[in-house]
Amino acid sequence: MALKKKPVTGMKDMMPAEMEIRDYVIGQIKETYRAFGFSSIETPCVEHIENLCSKQGGDNEKLIFKILKRGEKLKIEEAKEEKDVVDGGLRYDLTVPLSRYYANNANELPSPFKALQMGNVWRADRPQRGRFRQFMQCDIDILGEPGNLAEIELILATTTLLGKLDFKNFTIRINDRRILKAMAAYSGFAESDYENVFIILDKMDKIGLDGVAAELEENGYAKGSVEKYLQLFKEITNDVEGVRYCKEKLEGFLADDAAASLEMIITSVESAKEADFCMKFDPTLVRGMSYYTGTIFEISMDEFGGSVGGGGRYDEMIGKFTGQNTPAVGFSIGFERIVMLLLERGYQVPTAAQKKAFLIDKKMPKEGMLKILNLAKAERALGKQVMIVNMKKNKKFQKEQLMEQGYTEIVDCYADNVEQL
């Protein structure tokens, strides 16, 4: 059987030009988030299958790469159900592992705990532009803080980072799951139908208001409820006034603190922001994860045509491990999509070190080689990136390749000129 050169579908090899940008973005992420008080942690890429299949990850639970039991534990011939042969899986996000991590280590961590976690995740998804089966996620989470200061800090930290990466005029869309539920209750939908109604509502940006109405009616919901529900979206504005309208219109269905909290988050972020972006109250924002309990948000960029990050409050997830709910809220940027957009716009890393190359003739004596090695050592001590390579026959093509890699200074080294270097 012939070996295959291409990577597995939905995964990719990283070329040096991309890795330079990836490394730079990772550096900016760590520097920015640490300035906001976040501490780096790491969790294993493999999780217990029970944790991954706990009905908290929405459709992502259908995309798990599952791992067979090993050695004597794997008894395929005796298996009756999947659980008899599977005991682990590759993580599909970082939130479930973080919740397990906090439940296991809470006594040794500060409260509130501000976590920064970066790492690869895996989903058996259909690959497309900006979507892979293996991809890097970057999350910041605040655990143990029930107040909306957590949301404000997460949004400010994330938008500050995007500003440093030269992203402008993007939008933070924000909503609250409690408002979603209050709107559904006000319209007459049964509580058991909320999640299905929200799944249909989540298609609003693709099928529009009329499409949502048609699909709700196709699912058997009363026309009166559907009309009352969609009328709300026609009346609600995408600003603080829209939040205030919800508080007034949904009285009796919505807790006062939900609207007040959302208004405070929006006004606080608008006042304290560093980057060039806008906050938009979006009552159609759903977020797919069923574990969200309160505030939810997404980053929208016109140049991508969709979301490049999102998050929200998930106050009940850690309680699945401990039996006691813990306030928790997180924000994840779409690392792969951010890098893709930077590559597409020809982004140049601003802090790249000056690059210098020494091309050494094959007849270079030992003494000359030692001198070049010491020269390179001295240049590196000054912060330069220095490469030493043997000179090829096609020196012109070799230099062109080096220049494409960013080497702005290329020195030809021969036995008869090494003393002048």
UniProtKB/TrEMBL annotation:
Keyword Nucleotide-binding: yes
PROSITE patterns tied to this protein: AA_TRNA_LIGASE_II
Molecular function (Gene Ontology), one example: ATP binding
Listed EC numbers: 6.1.1.21
Catalytic activity: tRNA(His) + L-histidine + ATP = L-histidyl-tRNA(His) + AMP + diphosphate + H(+)
SUPFAM superfamilies for this protein: Class II aaRS and biotin synthetases (SSF55681)
Keyword vocabulary terms for this entry: ATP-binding, Ligase, Nucleotide-binding, Protein biosynthesis
Gene Ontology biological process terms from the UniProt entry: histidyl-tRNA aminoacylation
Keyword Cell cycle: no
A Pfam family of this chain: tRNA-synt_His
InterPro entries according to UniProt: aa-tRNA-synth_II, aa-tRNA-synth_II/BPL/LPL, His-tRNA-ligase, HisRS-like_core, HisRS/HisZ
Boundaries of every Aminoacyl-transfer RNA synthetases class-II family profile domain copy: 10-350
One Gene Ontology term, aspect cellular component: cytoplasm
Residues binding L-histidine: 93-95, 123, 137, 141, 287, 291-292
Family, as annotated: Belongs to the class-II aminoacyl-tRNA synthetase family.
NCBIfam families membership: hisS
Name of protein: Histidine--tRNA ligase
Gene source species: Mediterraneibacter gnavus (strain CC55_001C)
